[in-house]
């Protein structure tokens, strides 16, 4: 590192002293904390993003958001050149950088890292970092701190994209690195045109919707609702009402949004008896999660949750069906030599009934630890990988090989079997590859795909919800002295350490028909999470609470 670079880093970092007595960690999805202590962390992640851009000679993204967390929190995450999450091998560097205690130590760490990674810092070629934020009031000044971090690396240029959904920023980073059009309007254009394409390909007779058959969307009082107001005007064949768009005075994620609806299984604020029988969905605070729900009757506040597992199942059914139409034996002379490998990726939080259903369809289902970075990585190993967390974060990945094959197939059909059923199936799958966000889970694009498929199938939300019946499940959080004492194995389904706990969980679980239970330390909160599933609500409650008690006994109650 040359002297100019060194003194630039020393002087800028002295303006961003780290908070005292706080240990920060990159966690499941970037740094998250109370916004008031994040200036220094965000500044430092700005430096990291600039280094990543120099190292990869590509555009990198920085998103300032704390997703579904409360409005006073904020956070920051990095989008890699592919548009996906920051490469996991850089996470330890993110941790050490965030926790460096003074400018000298910070510069020392950067110098060592730059040497190890063979990053040449001479500013010869400039690199770009796209910055965006959600609607949190703390976002503006944090974005400024990120800019300061970026411009502390000579040759790195920060481009402020303003307020965006998290998946839009990831999409933009990916598009720019592919040399494609990458503005927010381009994103909306791509979503609306591929949606239109799917709607135009609906078999006659199956789309029996009338104009009054609308979708009502809970925008979590965040960026998703605001953006959907723009996108919905570009859509044909779908009527959307946005509630909790943030303009009505409601507070971000407060009694609203996908996380609240999924965890509490109640209607978000602003929804009630007027919505009985209507298709409803909720976005989270940065619009990368989506769950649907049904308000069943005027007397109950509980909703019928149509969660990420069911969205995954709907996508899987549709894709499997289109693939089989595409691969039907034809008398036309088309080359059929490619067997597409379809993989479904879930976590242990997936409802057992969804896994059974998917397996019954003959699909390959794989499990990874919690956190989309793991699911995404796994899904990328298939020709078509569909992944979802139960909480509604997921997407579909298509391999380059499959995309080339599909394009070629489509061209072949256009020549020899134009307008045939296999040709339509190829066009539908191509439209799906354009509609779904290949970078990360995206509530807006996922929602449009759900809507297109429901119209295609001629299904109501109730019919969709009947694909299978969720097993009753319960989630609890337990405060313990040290959650890191729990080490899990087999995609977090068994406790490897401390000894004895797994045996006790097994003994408890065996008492319940269809019982399944696991515990793991949360990656985003200082708690142990307990998940239990059983054949009745009472049994799921009782299994969860007895295992929670057991966790207390074995690990001690936390003080905070
Ligand atoms: C049970 C649950 O919903 N866990 C969530 C939550 O992680 P934890 O490590 O469980 O705190 O936040 C993650 C980031 O948003 C998300 O990926 C994950 O699914
Ligand atoms: Mg989110």
UniProtKB/TrEMBL annotation:
It comes from the Eukaryota. Pfam families: AMG1_II (PF21405), AMG1_III (PF21404), PGM_PMM_I (PF02878), PGM_PMM_IV (PF00408). Keywords: Isomerase, Magnesium, Metal-binding, Phosphoprotein. Residues 182-291, 307-459 form the Phosphoacetylglucosamine mutase AMG1 domain. Coiled coil: none annotated. One of its GO terms (biological process) is carbohydrate metabolic process. InterPro entries: A-D-PHexomutase_a/b/a-I, A-D-PHexomutase_a/b/a-I/II/III, A-D-PHexomutase_C, A-D-PHexomutase_C_sf, AMG1_II, AMG1_III, PAGM. Binds 1 Mg(2+) ion per subunit. Substrate binds at residues 389-391, 520-524, 529. Interconverts GlcNAc-6-P and GlcNAc-1-P. It comes from Rosa chinensis (China rose). Its cofactor is Mg(2+). Mg(2+) binds at residues 67, 284, 286, 288. Residues 488-549 form the Alpha-D-phosphohexomutase C-terminal domain. The keyword Magnesium applies. Residues 55-89, 108-177 form the Alpha-D-phosphohexomutase alpha/beta/alpha domain. Its EC number is 5.4.2.3. This is Phosphoacetylglucosamine mutase. GO terms for molecular function: metal ion binding; phosphoacetylglucosamine mutase activity. Pathway: Nucleotide-sugar biosynthesis; UDP-N-acetyl-alpha-D-glucosamine biosynthesis; N-acetyl-alpha-D-glucosamine 1-phosphate from alpha-D-glucosamine 6-phosphate (route I): step 2/2. It catalyses: N-acetyl-alpha-D-glucosamine 1-phosphate = N-acetyl-D-glucosamine 6-phosphate.
